[in-house]
Design goal:
The chain has 481 residues and is of the alpha+beta class. It has 24 helices and 11 strands. The chain has a domain at 1-69 and 351-376 and 398-409.
């Protein structure tokens, strides 16, 4: 019967089915993929703390599927290698590094909003998810590679479509036990489609024109370099004093520059393969999750116009007669931040994550699990757990006032996971969400399309099966652009 329950989830994609099971089983329940692979699905804060306060590795039965796509980066590494990478990458997310990215977020968002001005003239709803995805990719390209051209090329659009395909195929593979065998999977149409999408995604990061521009005239005759060649060229540029000075004098260091400069206490740097894996990991995690978070937030604003108005009043007061936000503005967005967090509670960008216990665990109620057990943390169900969140289906930003946060279980809210393996880029993501959503609310009033309500669908990230269709009314408050 347990397997039948999981089959129902696979067929319907029903996140809310798990929430209903959480009412029946307060701490956890078994979750089976096929007849042989079982997880303990948890959604109660004390159970979550028992596992996620430790550094247990990601479940290889799930995360090894990522290797063909993003390699062995932070998402899938464990043990000493994970610790080494985490330590090397952490300085890249220091606030001094993140500060200049605010200007990047401003510029990419303005470009998207200009397009929305044209769409709004048609006086009908449209799917915002795709446009937000392209905007997030544009921002990420500039932050990762220093790509300077505005707008997205055909190659960029191909990457966006490839990632959408990969997340769908990955979710299908996780839920289909017969596809867990590599030999079988690569022989199927889904497996071949996955490999084609991987190649499309890799083609995107293998060659970016700004790499050649930084190399100067000597790079003009080069054919499109692969990732290892790109990394070698950037290393050579960093060793040249004049080129190094140019890089340091740019408005911001991009993510690849920071990775190339990262060294441990012994002076050891990341290998070229490690660099490639971390770039691919950052591209995936920094793009798709942000797209989901921003899109569902705008849906919440359309659904709850009173909160939309209050957020707009706050950001208008902060911005004044300026047309773009600065670093110091982000800390002043008190109510907007609470609304963002409440939307992340109801619509977490990553609704489910998996771990494998490296040692036994004892839970608060006396139950225990042996080493090697597989754990599924259902973040969506945790965030709608009525024993933790009163009126859990109600959108209430005041849940995130300092007073309420102080009295709540520290493992009750986990949009970026928690513990030693939490999301290294969570501050980057929150900064981008604040800038993008604030600018959106300044330019437009968002309302629902009652004929096309979104249908929640987990595909590694939380998407909508039919898109997120909203109507936009231009406001032109202040400069607005």
């Amino acid at each position: 019967m347990k397997s039948l329950g999981v089959l129902q989830i696979q067929k319907t994609g029903s996140l809310d089915k798990v929430v209903s099971w959480a009412h029946q089983f307060p701490y956890a329940h078994p979750l089976w993929l096929g007849q042989f692979l079982g997880f303990l699905n948890i959604y109660e804060p004390d159970y979550v703390k028992a596992v996620y306060s430790r550094g247990d590795p990601k479940a290889a039965d799930v995360y090894d599927f990522f290797l063909q796509w993003i390699g062995k980066g932070l998402l899938v590494l464990h043990g000493p290698k994970w610790y080494e990478h985490r330590k090397l990458l952490t300085p890249g997310f220091h606030y001094d590094v993140l500060k200049p990215y605010v200007a990047v977020f401003n510029n990419s968002t303005h470009a998207m909003l200009d397009k929305w001005e044209e769409k709004a003239r048609e006086d009908k709803s449209f799917d915002i998810f795709c446009d937000v995805g392209h905007m997030a990719l544009d921002s990420l390209m500039k932050c990762t590679f220093g790509k300077g051209n505005s707008g997205l090329s055909h190659r960029d659009n191909s990457y966006y479509l490839a990632v959408s395909d990969l997340t769908l195929l990955m979710q299908q593979r996780i839920e289909s036990f017969q596809y867990h065998n590599d030999f079988i999977y690569w022989l199927t149409p889904h497996g071949r489609r996955f490999l084609r999408a991987c190649q499309e995604a890799h083609d995107h990061t293998e060659f970016q024109p700004p790499f050649r521009q930084r190399m100067g005239p000597q790079a003009v005759t080069l054919s499109a370099p692969g990732p290892d060649q790109v990394i070698r060229e950037r290393k050579a540029a960093l060793q040249d004093e004049k080129e190094q000075e140019k890089i340091q004098n740019r408005r911001h260091l991009d993510f690849l520059d920071i990775l190339l400069g990262a060294r441990d206490e012994s002076g050891i740097k990341l290998s070229d393969a490690d660099l490639r894996a971390e770039v691919d990991t950052f591209m995936f995690e920094g793009h798709d999750t942000t797209t989901s978070g921003i899109s569902w937030f705008l849906y919440c604003m359309a659904l709850y116009p009173e909160h939309q108005s209050r957020c707009r009043e706050e950001v208008c007061e902060i911005l004044g007669d300026r047309d773009s936000f600065q670093w110091d503005d982000l800390g002043k967005m008190t109510y907007l931040t609470m609304c963002i967090k409440e939307s992340l509670r109801l619509y977490p960008p990553v609704p489910q994550v998996y771990r494998q216990l490296s040692k036994p665990v004892n839970f608060v109620d006396g139950r225990s699990l042996p080493a090697g057990s597989l754990i599924s943390l259902h973040i969506y169900a945790l965030h709608r757990n009525s024993s933790v969140w009163p009126d859990s289906e109600v959108f209430d930003p005041l849940r995130f006032t300092p007073e309420n946060v102080a009295t709540r279980h520290p493992f009750a809210f986990m949009p970026f996971s928690a513990g030693p393996r939490n999301c290294i880029g969570q501050q980057f993501a929150m900064n981008e969400m604040k800038v993008v959503t604030a600018l959106c609310l300044l330019r437009f009033e968002f309302t629902l399309d009652p004929l096309q309500p979104p249908i929640k669908m987990p595909q590694l990230i939380l998407r909508s099966k039919n898109g997120i269709h909203l109507r936009l009314k231009p406001l032109h408050l202040g400069s607005g652009k």
